Amino acid sequence: MDWRTKLLDPTPQARQDYRSLVTPVYRGSTVVFEEQAAVTDDWRQAENGYSYGLYGTPTALELASRIAGIEGARESLIVPGGQAAIALIYLSYCQAGSHALVPISAYGPNKAMAEGLMRGLNVEVEAYDPLIGAGIADLIRENTALIWCESPGSVTMDIQDVPAIVVAAHKSGVAVALDNTYAAGVMFDAFAHGVDVSMQALTKYVGGHSDLLLGSVSARDDAAYGKLGPIYQQLGLAVSPDDCSLALRGLQTLAVRLDALERATLRVARWLQEHSIVDEVFHPALPDCPGHEIWKRDFTGSTSVFSFTFKESVSAEKAKSFIDALNIFKIGMSWGGVNSLAVIYPDLKRPNRDFGGRIVRLNIGLEDTDDLIADLEQAMQGL
User: Which residues touch 370 (CB under 8 Å, ≥6 apart)?
Assistant: First the structure.
């Protein structure tokens, strides 16, 4: 055999009985089949074997299996980010002429997709009060195909009565999808509470270090899995095996990080509650947070993100100066990592509520909690 041919021979030369505690990073597009009769193009690789790298290498499928395991899902699909997960769910359940419901407090890009892409596809997405509970039955129409839940809600942290929404939805044959990123898939059991599809931005808590972009979509049963899979295939939602490897590593420390983040976040939130220029603190574990009693009933813990408002004596401009004066807290949008973040929402409104540019969202990281409180205190001086 010519040396040029030898260079390109994919047959492994080293021993193949090596095993490690770490899942290897498998990269590849072409899957090599043993014979022509075995050639297939099937997205169900977990069940039917590998067919094409687009649907996941063993690294991606290992991550999918582990996410499904901790969530109690029939199966999980790994996608390039949280927004890709949202798109996959919308496009799997809605078609031209469909109606969907999304809470007013949902993740901003979800609402942007509703008003942009979905409207362009002639899908009407209606916003609803996140605290509506069983009352959502009054909003369900004959063409309602999907109800979104997100609990806690984005920024204002509203806790939804997901089980009540599920009961109302299923009576009318409507599927329920949940953005379960806040709970990292473990502090709220989506499928025990009846949800059909649960998604996460794995970028946040599973990744845990602000250095990857991934999402997951988990199916309750065969019916949900069968809806999601073909659209997953058609959209070509391939993911980086390197990012999947980082997420697998993140899973190993998830429990330790969540415990530490919960303790630190509650301490900071309670400190803010007592501050003279703070009006409200939106943290689901605090009794004043909308839906707190439901949180106690349905959740097993809280995580690292919450919000607070300054009193009206603090102008919107002064609130911005507070953000700029922070030293340890960095100004940034994506939460769930080891670093503390702060950002203001100058235009955020809710029905019958204008926050006047004085609502701040914090992500508490793994820095020393005394240092974080001192940073907040010094930034508040003079407000």
Answer: none
The ranges assigned to domains in the chain are 20-248, 254-380
- Angle made by CA atoms 230, 232, 233, in degrees to the nearest 5: 65
| HSE of 120, CA atoms in CB hemisphere, 13 A | 5
- Residue 346 CB neighbour total at 10 angstroms: 13
Cα–Cα distances (Å) from 323 to 35, 46, 177, 334, in that order, read 62, 47, 34, 16
Closest to 118 (Cα-Cα) out of 142, 86, 80, 150 = 86
Residue with tokens 């799997």: 92
Q: What would the pLDDT profile of 312-350 be if each residue is shown by its tens digit?
A: 999 999 999 999 999 999 999 889 999 999 999 988 888
Ranges assigned E (strand) in the chain = 75-79, 99-103, 124-128, 144-150, 175-179, 197-201, 215-219, 278-282, 305-310, 330-331, 341-344, 349-350, 353-354, 359-363
Q: At what angle do helices 316-325 and 369-380 cross, to 10 degrees?
A: 140
Phi first, then psi: give them for residue 57, nearest 5 degrees.
-90, 175
Domain 254-380 sits in CATH at 3.90.1150.10
Would you identify the CATH topology of the domain 20-248?
A: Aspartate Aminotransferase; domain 2 (3.40.640)
How many CB atoms sit inside 10 A of residue 226's CB? Answer: 13
Q: Is the pLDDT of residue 255 over 90?
A: yes
Q: Count Cβ atoms below 10 Å from residue 175 Cβ, excluding itself.
A: 24
- pLDDT tens digit sequence for 40-87: 999 998 888 899 999 999 999 999 999 999 999 999 999 999 999 999
pTM (global) more than 0.85: yes
% of the chain at pLDDT higher than 70: 100
Q: 24 φ, ψ to 5°?
A: -65, 155
What's the rounded Cα separation, in Å, for the pair 212 and 349?
30
Strands 124-128 and 99-103: parallel
